[in-house]
Every structure is written in C-alpha cells, then in structure tokens.
Amino acid sequence: MTTDSLSNLMDERRTFAPESGFAAAANVDAGWYAAADADREGFWAAQARRLSWASEWSNVLDWSDAPVAKWFVGGKLNVAYNCVDRHVEAGHGDRVAIQWEGESGDARAITYADLRREVSKTANALASLGLRAGDRVAIQLPMIPEAIFAMLACARLGLVHSVVFGGFSPTALRSRVDDAQARLLITSDGQFRRGKAAPMKANTDEAVADCASIEHVLVVRRTGSTVEWTEGRDLWWHDLVDGQSDTHEPEAFDAEHPLFILYTSGTTGNPKGILHTSGGYLTQVAYTHHAVFDLKPESDVYWCTADIGWVTGHSYIVYGPLANGATQVVYEGTPDSPHQGRHFEIIQKYGVTIYYTAPTLIRTFMKWGDEIPAGYDLSSLRLLGSVGEPINPEAWIWYRKHIGGDRCPIVDTWWQTETGAIMISPLPGVTSTKPGSAQRPLPGIGARVVDDAGVEVGPGGGGYLVLDKPWPSMLRGIWGDEERFRETYWSRFADEGFYFAGDGAKYDADGDIWLLGRVDDVMNVSGHRISTTEVESALVSHPSVAEAAVVGAADPTTGQGIVAFVILRGGQDASVVGVLRDHVAKEIGPIAKPRQVLVVPELPKTRSGKIMRRLLRDIAENRAVGDTTTLADSSVMALISSGLNTAS
Ligand code: WT7
After folding, report:
1. Is the distance from the beta carbon of residue 285 to the nearest atom of ligand 1 less than 6 Å?
2. What is this structure's pTM?
3. Is the pLDDT of residue 268 over 60?
4. Cα dihedral: 109, 113, 118, 121 (round 10)
5. Least enclosed by CB within 10 Å: which of 9, 302, 391, 485?
6. Which atom of ligand 1 is nearest to the CA of 306?
C-alpha cells in the first residue's frame, strides 16, 4: 500500500473543545480510557452490571474458540426484562418510553408501564402459536409501535427475530425468510409513505407464498386498506394480541442465546445473516448509548432517525435506549412529509435534546436550505450524532451551525452491522471534536489502522481499519455459513487475529482516526490512493454542489480515472463543471482532478441512504447498469441515464 495518500481531509484544522458545563456534567470522563486499558475484562464486567442478570457469569470472556467469542460465560438474563420491566419495578412506570409520531401527525405516548403490558400481551400471543425459544420470527413492519413490541416480545421468549426493512422487495424478503427458516412473519396491511397508504401485505404475501417454513402471518392493521387473506395462515394482530393477558413472566436465557439475525447487503453475493447474541450485545449497546449520547434518562428526549430495519434501529432505537430507560421519539414517516421542516417541527414539539442521524440526511437538509431549520426552535438540542458513512467536514460544520446552534457537541460514530454497537467515536464532554473524524476507539475497544502486512501505520499514514481485540457486541457468525464468516472477516489478517472491517482509514498527526470509506471504494489513480470520500468532500465544499458521489472508473493510462456525479444546488447549471474539476484539483491536488464531472438529478441510494457506487461505476464505464433491487427508488438509474443521454 502506498502511503502518499492525499490528505485534504486531514488538513481540517478546526477543533471544538468541550464546553465546560457539558464536560462537568458528562456521563464519562477521560479516565475511562486508562481504566479500560488497565483491566479490559474488569471494565466490561462493570459495563455488564448496568444490566440486571438472573445469574452472574463465571468468566467475562472466553476467546478460546476464536473468532467465535463467548462473553459473560454462564450468565443468564432476559433482554426484554432489562429493556422494560426493570424500569417499571424501579418506579419509572409513568416515564414515557416511546413518544411515537405518525407521519400524518397522529401521536401516541407509551410509558414504560404501557410497554410492559404491550410486550407481555405480544409475548403471550406468540407463545400461543407454539413458538419456542430459538425459533426464528421474521418481521417486516413500518415504524409503528408494534414493531418494537414484536421485537421485544421475541427477545422475551428467546425467539430470534430477523427484521427486514419495510422497503425491501418480496424477493429480498423471501430469501431472508428462507435462509433463517422463520416460522412466523409479522407484517402490516400497509404503510404510510408521503401521505399515501402503500401496500405491505401484498408484498409479504408474494414473498412467503412458497416459504414452507412459514406457519402464520400476523398482520397489524395500520392503513385499513383491503388485503388478501389466507385462512388458517393469516391472523390479525388485534384478534390475536389484544385479548391476551397483559402480564407475562420472563424467563432468563444464557448470555450467548441468539437475539437476532440481521442481513447486510454484502458487496457481492447473497446478503449475510449477521448473528447477534444477548448478554454482550445488550451490555455494549447500553454502555455506548450511555457514554456516547450522554443520556440522562430523567431529562433527555432522545431521537434516532433510523428505521428499525437497520442495525442502527436495533441498537439505538430498541435495545440501547430502552435498556437505559430513555424517553425517545419514534417517527413513522419521511423527513419531507408533509413538508421539509418535519424533523425540526418534531424536535420543537417534543423538546428533543439528542438527535442522531445520517450524513446523507444532513446533506439533504443543506440542499433544502438553511432557512428551513432556522424557522423552528431547536434550542432544546444539546448533542448531535452522525452515523453510516464518513461525514464530510462541510456537512459537519453545517450540522453544528444550523442544527446544533454552534453549541452542541457532534459525535461521529463509526460501527457496522457486524460490530453491533458503536466502536469509534468522540466522547462528548471529553473529546475536542474535529469535523470529519470519528477520532478514537471507545474505552474498552481496540481498533487500529494497519498496512497490507498488518503492521500499524504511523501518524499521517493510511491503510485498513482492523479491530484487534474481541468486543462484547461482536457478531457471533453468519447464520448458517461459518466458512463465510471466517473468510469475510478473519482471513485477511489471520496471522494477527484481527477483524477486517473493510474500511480504509488514516491517522492524522494527533493519532485521530479518519474513516475513508470502504476499501472497495478507494481509487487508485496513477499509483496514488485517493478516497472517493476525499473527492466528494472537496466537491461538496464548493458552494454550487449539493451532493456528490465519486467512483474510480477503469482507465487505460492511469489505472483508474475519477468520475464524479454531482447534484447542483438550485440556480446552478452544467456550465460549472469545469470550475468543479479545477476546484477539486485545488482542494486536493492535480492528481485528484476528476476525469469527468457529470451533473445528475439524483444519486442511486440504498434504503439506508448509502450511495450505490457500483451502479455509478457501471455508467462511468459504459456498461449496462447492474442489479438495482436494493435501491430505495428503482427509477433513479433511468433518470440519471436519460439525463446524461440528453446532455451528450
Ligand atoms: C459501514 C457499515 C453503523 C450503522 C449503519 C451502517 C460505514 C458507518 C460510519 C462513520 C465512516 C461509517 C463504514 C462501515 N460507516 N458509520 N461514522 N464514518 N463510515 O451499518 O450498513 O453495516 O455499514 O458503514 O463503511 O463499514 P452498515
């Protein structure tokens, strides 16, 4: 690997020291790093004591069967009890757990006492279907409270849930149901999307028509639209659940009892069913939610804008916040429905104090205009979070200024479906933050940047991000495919025993970590490593650019050439292309000057907001566009291609 990488990101010199009042009241202090280093297992044992255990573990970590870890060996707990009942028993039954907001403005406040009743009824209902601990349950639901009741009811019974994002196609759902051999599917008649009722059961019917493992389909009524009905298989939620007893005695399960499977879109091949278990997972999501979001359960109103169909929703809507007794907003709809100020209206309405979202949405807000957030009272906010992709410094600064009132610390949290919980992030009140850098592994976490040979690079050096020590919420495998688990994550640095994250990263002169995107998104131009993120960052730092995606396209002379796809801000036209090429050359260096800058109306994104560079690479290399089934909007590629044809 060459180390003459470009470093415009690391020329970022602005830092933001913690405000003294925030630091004084922060949940953690700088001493946590040293404490965790001095006694890692002792540190994690202390974090595990955030939870209520039915029986204590005998040892903290068993790594003898690496790379399959056992954490809190022999300990027993019930995950749902920890997220629900114990808060009621501690006298917080009247605290709102979920402040649910429907897209159209209908709202429902669910206290911890309500949640205990709802989860108990749901658990009794699932038990009445003959489901037993270890059985798999597929869930495809919109962002409605029943989605959370269903997940927690599974956890309560030791059933393994597999939540499939509501926008996934029948084919995608079918492959996941088949892979996990789910006995039950929980879905709804439909979902509200931008003010319209869209069908859901029609899709799930198609998906499970040939799934032999499915015995029942449990259907929540959300939109009231008419649905097809398969007698004997289909059951209405209100028929089965509403009449159940609202008490249920939770049973304790082993710390390593499987909690859920969540499929990730791998770069190639079938999605991987990432397996997470109970005690270690809940320990780390509770700890990180406490430390990284500085949660004060008595006074904070927390809002994570993810969908429960993704790991962010699992860890930072369902398990982390509820384990910590948080009050949180759960929002059903899209950010621009019925208007582009919807998120700010919700922050104002509920007095949201902690807001956790993705860079793609931040850049969308930038595109919509500064005046929109300026029209709302956002003064309740005290902390902002970012997740999902590297956040470019311009978006970070915009987020801080226009949403965070120049006062809120921003935590840029790096992690993955596989890691289960946050791994690298500033600690609010402790870390002086730097726009664009996730900075340091959390106390208790081991991460480093290494070269091809697995040797750690020095300050200013770039390479691969690896995790060099096991962590409690680590994946325990890929469902049904142990070989792929070893091959994907543990073979690249097998000798060193490192987990290979698949991300490129660098250290700056201070030793802070900068994530540079997936290694498959790192370009090689004339022997120079150039991150797509770096070029994108340079492009969006130009005032005429709203959003940019960059790919490396095969080039006979330079190996790869840089092709940029940009969405311009209002009032700009394609004549700015030459200016943008020069701008990148100026920001990064002549070798980073894009070969082409193509103006497009949209970018192809997955439903979790990740840009599908593979499809853009197809266009850049003049190929037929490949598989678009995981796009949030499948018409986007046609829109991009037709725009390019008319332009040329
Ligand atoms: C990949 C994991 C973690 C929940 C959502 C995505 C990228 C994630 C950051 C960040 C830079 C980030 C990485 C990672 N990523 N957070 N803060 N800075 N990159 O989960 O779908 O499993 O994707 O998202 O490339 O490997 P996921």
Report:
1. no
2. 0.85
3. no
4. -160
5. 485
6. 5
